[in-house]
Structure prediction request, 435 residues.
Amino acid sequence: MSLFETQRRAAGFKSLTDRTESKVRDVLSGRTRGWRAMLPFFGPAVIASIAYMDPGNFATNIQAGAGYGYSLLWVLLGANLIAMLFQALSAKLGIVTGRNLAEMCRESYPRPVVFGMWIVSEIAAMATDLAEFLGGAIGLSLLANIPLLVGMGITAIVTYAILMMERRGFRPMELLIGGFVGVIGLCYAVELFLSPTDWGGVALGLVQPGFPDHNALLISVGIIGATVMPHAVFLHSGLTQARVKPNDDRERSILVKFSNREVLVALAGAGLVNMAMVVMASNAFHAGHPEVAEIETAYHTLTPLLGVAASAVFLVSLIASGISSSVVGTMAGQMIMQGFVGFRIPVLVRRLVTMVPAFAVVAFGVGATQALVVSQVILSLALPIPMIALLHFTSKRSIMGQFANRPVTIAFAVIAAVLVLALNFTLLAAVFGLI
Prediction:
């Protein structure tokens, strides 16, 4: 707790975080019931959901919609269901054990294994932040017609200012990130209003699996790779860990129940936003511009097709996505470092470390979209670590007690993990020209 927060509590002031903790306690004790009981539990999954609406998702969803219309919507639906499962498991781990996934790895595995896991996870966190930081900068650059480096500087200042809100407890950050989620969702509701949509075709795309060609398979792999994110799996366990600590298994059971509901709502919302991205790209580009594959091209093409309003709304959603996901990426990086090695570095240092690669990419003339692709490859390499570790810990009765995964949950999680990992390795093989 910060000195500022300590002084406020000593003066009898109840912060947003204090009031949220009090409301959660009221639910746990049975004093609050009904729909109002759900509200204080919204936060961790909302923050984690930003990972499913980051600039990497923008790029893959634009390619899917422009090139194949509504036909790959079923891939998004499947990826979203897998994400719900693993985020729910991550949240449960934090609630039941009081430790986040990185801390569990440090305490349970041999030191050389832990060191290797930390290095790979740190690289993944930096790659994630590279993509998200660039996304916000690209949006600002296009919206304000300023150089990309200037956009990056503004993004850096804004994200650092937001990160300082962590000093005030968990609730202000949850509400602010929730506001960004709302902005992104509203932007895509407007986009759908501005573009003609064949809702029958959308419904068919959700329930009719298939790959029109080889490239559609690779784009589908990219969609899944941009959806199930290593840092989000690490982060969610820490977000639930940092909230109200349960006193017994009865309270743990209530917290897990409400956490699962929040995951369902928050990730369903993120899934709808992703589907709206694909639908918008299909409506705008599929008939006449199926070759559109880059964020900058999509923006410049939207203006003559759907008007200035559509392209401006698109950029606002990209900026909101880039800034908020960069904040969340830095939070995840902090948690990964603290969990694996047991110490915490200042947020400013962490922010500088993750910004340097992004500035280097732009300074050396590497294309922003190309950098986004490379970051997705790195994430694909790192993904097995949190997925396998999470499944291992949450399935052990010696760790989870009565909350250990049931056989049916284990079966679905194993199938999902094998599917995601196989598809990610397919993407890697394609990137390196092996298929």
